[in-house]
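Backbone-to-sequence.
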């Protein structure tokens, strides 16, 4: 008889390990099935000892061991993958099993195709960065793939979205189709299992292009891991345990002792900071300044309509002229709108009260599609008719303000009736395939106008002649310490993709972020932003841990008070968190700031890792409110 310690591969457990006993010996690293709350779940065997040697520990345990009847066990993960999962779990205050489940397709966990016992051949861990336009990066990737194949090493390219996996599949696999595999979540379980096994078969090096959900693929000869478009928020998992796939990929490369390349049009602030600390080596082909062939101009909308007092213009005269000329020349224009709907803000013209959501009190967005306009809350989803009066003074004088995509669409339709307009937003595109179809058609259409929100970014695979950003001013008011970086990256990316004209409209045209982005000046923006983060103690100068609990008011207050007392040695702040009205619940968040001067002690770390499921734990969250 043997005593097993197992790491459950499930997101529904916060415990790192559970103990069972079994009749026959099972090898370490094997995947077995264990019972948890009347369910059978896969688990990783992390320790095995003879039961008779642990009699005293079992008697003192205070619980009864369960027996498992394990007829079959398989090895599904590389030892290096398990080690990377353990490091990731420690950083994100979760367990190893939840990390493995996050980055492994569920059909693979169910089928458990066995892997060879051959160990990875090893090498040296090197961390590089690559900054530059998409075509420059593609050329570099092709060179890396040729070099790796010559050295009998495989390459794993990680992309944040399915669309980008398919794009790189088209760009990088010509001539090596037989040794290239694209693994992403839209494929059926049957296709995934077939691809998984084919990618592991044979001794010839392969190119694996995948999203984070298949990062644990156990290919032994991986010599290079590429983290493409590292600035994307698509690498952050949206549900528990809220992991960052970039962190796991880097840890995987470190344990595999291979090369890791972090790449994007503009690198993250944290990445450039690590370059300065000599943790990352900038590749020789990396660009200090992102160049473009387009004429770039930031239009000051406060001065654009001088002489027309109090008249608000959605688009400047220069922008409209650019579109008109592009239509005459059979060229294409991308018009970027930040907000969905018609107007992101509505207020009373008499008392200036802002129209807000009845459930969460956030400002509602006016939508005017069809004959029945309505207010929609983009925070909680509450919807109601827009035919209402001011709730404070009873006035009918409600004024819609701001630039929404529907208002821009109406303007373009009325001004350029001969142009073909493709609209992409959450309200206009119901699926990824529909979005891709629209954008593919846009590229093929002379005199075409693509009007879209940030949904269009993963699909812009090639250059276009002209780009107009209607406004980004509203983004500066969002309480997100990474917002300046997001704005900068967005501008530089669209500016680089436009080949003739790039126009940015703003009522704050002299803003340093806009000016730096308009020049493609990455280093200038970095120096300003890193000093701001140093001053206010945001990452990379600290680690932020956000703990949120939702429940009845008295229960939440009591639990948060207990947690605060248990973490009294740490720098914490407590504040109300969002929860929809009508649920009878409230929420409180605690923000913990970990620095070199005030590190997270082992006792506090273990406490946070084992908090009950009604706590939500986020590491370095985008929003700290």
């Amino acid at each position: 008889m043997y005593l097993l310690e197992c790491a459950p591969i499930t997101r529904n457990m916060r415990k790192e390990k559970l103990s069972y006993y079994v009749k026959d010996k099972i090898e370490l690293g094997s995947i077995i099935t264990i019972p948890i709350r009347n369910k059978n779940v896969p688990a990783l065997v992390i320790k095995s000892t003879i039961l008779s040697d642990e009699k005293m520990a079992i008697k003192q345990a205070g619980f009864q061991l369960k027996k498992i009847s394990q007829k079959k066990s398989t090895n599904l993960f590389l030892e290096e993958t398990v080690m990377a999962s353990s490091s990731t779990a420690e950083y994100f205050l979760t367990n190893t099993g939840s990390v493995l489940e996050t980055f492994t397709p569920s059909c693979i966990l169910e089928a458990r195709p066995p892997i060879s016992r051959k160990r990875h051949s090893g090498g040296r861990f090197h961390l590089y960065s690559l900054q530059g336009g998409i075509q420059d990066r593609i050329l570099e990737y092709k060179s890396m793939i040729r070099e790796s194949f010559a050295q009998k090493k495989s390459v794993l390219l990680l992309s944040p979205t399915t669309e980008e996996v398919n794009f790189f599949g088209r760009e990088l696999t010509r001539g090596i189709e037989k040794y290239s595999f694209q693994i992403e979540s839209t494929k059926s379980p049957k296709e995934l299992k077939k691809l998984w096994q084919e990618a592991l078969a044979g001794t010839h090096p392969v190119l694996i292009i995948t999203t984070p959900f298949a990062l644990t693929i156990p290919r032994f000869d991986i010599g290079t891991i590429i983290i493409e478009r590292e600035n994307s928020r698509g690498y952050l998992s949206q549900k528990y345990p809220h992991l960052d796939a970039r962190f796991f990929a880097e840890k995987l490369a470190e344990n595999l002792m291979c090369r890791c390349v972090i790449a994007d049009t503009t690198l993250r602030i944290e990445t450039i900071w690590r370059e300065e600390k000599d943790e990352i080596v900038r590749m020789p082909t990396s660009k200090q300044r992102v160049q473009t062939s387009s004429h770039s101009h930031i239009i000051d909308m406060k001065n654009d309509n001088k002489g027309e007092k109090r008249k608000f213009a959605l688009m400047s005269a220069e922008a409209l002229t650019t579109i008109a000329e592009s239509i005459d020349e059979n060229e294409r224009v991308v018009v970027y709108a930040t907000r969905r709907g018609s107007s992101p803000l509505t207020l009373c013209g008499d008392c200036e009260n802002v129209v807000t959501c009845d459930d969460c009190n956030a400002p509602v967005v006016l939508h005017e599609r069809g004959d029945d306009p309505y207010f929609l809350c983009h925070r909680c989803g509450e919807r109601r008719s827009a035919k209402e009066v001011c709730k404070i003074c009873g006035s009918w004088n409600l004024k819609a303000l701001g630039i929404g995509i529907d208002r821009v669409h109406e303007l373009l339709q009325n001004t350029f009736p001969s142009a073909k307009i493709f609209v992409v937003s959450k309200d206009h595109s119901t699926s990824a395939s529909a979005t891709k179809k629209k954008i593919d058609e846009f590229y093929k259409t002379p005199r075409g106008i693509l009007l879209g929100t940030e949904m269009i970014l993963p699909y812009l695979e090639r250059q276009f002649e002209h780009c107009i950003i209607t406004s980004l001013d509203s983004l500066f008011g969002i309480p997100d310490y990474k917002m300046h970086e997001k704005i900068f990256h967005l501008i530089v990316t669209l500016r680089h993709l436009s080949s003739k004209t790039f126009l940015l409209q703003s009522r704050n045209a002299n803003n340093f972020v806009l000016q730096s982005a308009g020049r493609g000046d990455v280093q200038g923006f970095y120096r300003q932003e890193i000093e701001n983060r140093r001053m206010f103690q945001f990452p990379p100068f600290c680690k932020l841990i956000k703990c949120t609990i939702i429940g009845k008011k008295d229960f939440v207050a009591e639990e948060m008070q207990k947690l605060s007392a248990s973490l009294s040695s740490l720098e914490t702040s407590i504040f109300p968190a969002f929860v929809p009205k009508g649920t009878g619940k409230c929420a409180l968040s605690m923000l913990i700031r970990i620095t070199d001067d005030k590190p997270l002690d082992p006792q506090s770390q273990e406490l946070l890792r084992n908090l009950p499921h009604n706590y939500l734990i986020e590491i370095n969250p985008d929003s700290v409110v």
